[in-house]
Write a structure and sequence with these properties.
The protein is of the alpha+beta class and 58 residues long. The chain is 14% helix and 14% strand. The protein has a three-stranded antiparallel sheet, with no helix packed on it. The protein has one helix spanning 46-53, and strands at residues 12-14, 21-23, 28-29. It binds zinc ion.
């Protein structure tokens, strides 16, 4: 395995009613298609970081 340099980790929240994961930067992962490698462990997506700084809430 290993971490690819191009991978980014987003700040996301899974919808309890649809199972979809929506990220702060506007991406949506369908159920079963999301990356399970820790949504909140190490955020590397610049857009998500920027949105968090602006106080964007999911
Ligand atoms: Zn993002």
């Amino acid at each position: 395995m290993g971490r690819k340099g191009t991978d980014v980790v987003h700040i996301g929240r899974r919808s309890w009613w649809s199972g979809k994961v929506r990220t702060l930067c506007g991406l949506v992962y369908l159920p079963g298609n999301e990356q399970e490698q820790g949504w909140f462990t190490r955020i590397t997506c610049p857009a998500c970081k920027a949105a968090e700084k602006r106080g964007v809430r999911l």
